[in-house]
Fold this protein.
Amino acid sequence: MAGNQKGKSKIEQAKGKTKEAVGRAVGNERLEAEGRAEGAKGDARQAKEKAKDVFKH
């Protein structure tokens, strides 16, 4: 996995988890949903990069 893309996926996942937790804590459903979406985007990026690595080898 490219280091740059791996880093982006980890950052997106972390930001998503943080937003989701904060949204849940303060009762903000929109922020919680944004966090879930951002986390899913990071998961998707990570899966894409792992798939690329599998086909490279």
